[in-house]
Design brief:
With about 220 residues, the protein is an alpha+beta fold. The protein contains three helices and eleven strands; from the N terminus they run E-E-H-E-E-H-E-E-E-H-E-E-E-E. The strands form three sheets. The chain has a seven-stranded antiparallel β-sheet with strand order 9-1-8-5-6-11-10, with helices on one face. The protein has a two-stranded antiparallel ribbon with strand order 2-7. Strands 3-4 form a two-stranded antiparallel sheet. A hairpin with a 2-residue loop joins strand 3 and strand 4.
Amino acid sequence: TSKFKKFKVPPFAGRSPMATSQQTRSNITLRGSTEIVTEFFGFSINNILYQRGIYPPELFKPVNKYGLTLLVASDEGLRRYLSQVLTQISEWLMNRCIQKLVIVIASVTTQQVLERWVFNIEADRSFSDARPAQKPEREIQSEIQAIMRQITSSVSCLPLLREACTFDLLVYTDESCEIPHAWEVSDPKYISNSAEVRLRSFTTKVHKVDACVAYRRTDDDL
């Protein structure tokens, strides 16, 4: 059984820079996997917000990560907001009770949902740090790099967002998850008449993340 929770974006009022430490370990613990996945979500959200033009490009700055140049928010309000969200997601990853993260992009004027970026999360509930997972972190980083490249290239295959848009972050959690008071129960914000593009996946052998983006079909697609 799942709960669908949404943390509303504050009025464009944030986050400290995401960790970019380079690690080469091949023994992956639960905490190590959580750090990798949380960091991935942070860069993915920033990349999507930049590539889809949700905020002006001058509010982002380039950083080097995963062997790529990625754009992350430089606005203090947005950075602080994302930091709060990622801290909570990290806790749920450690508890292995989060099932899905969804980035919803909607029209500011009509509130119509135009895109849903979905990251499905599977956790190995039998995993124990007594027997760490074995996978070179370089291999994990390579898998993540492929997803980031797909997000960056999405501009060429997704419909142009011709109006001002905003975003929401939704999560699916197990019923056992403790939910902060600031989070609200939300409808899933599905898109009627949608098409879907599947993205690559990656695994730490503790957590596995599959990604896809659904978008509203335009008249040109019909």
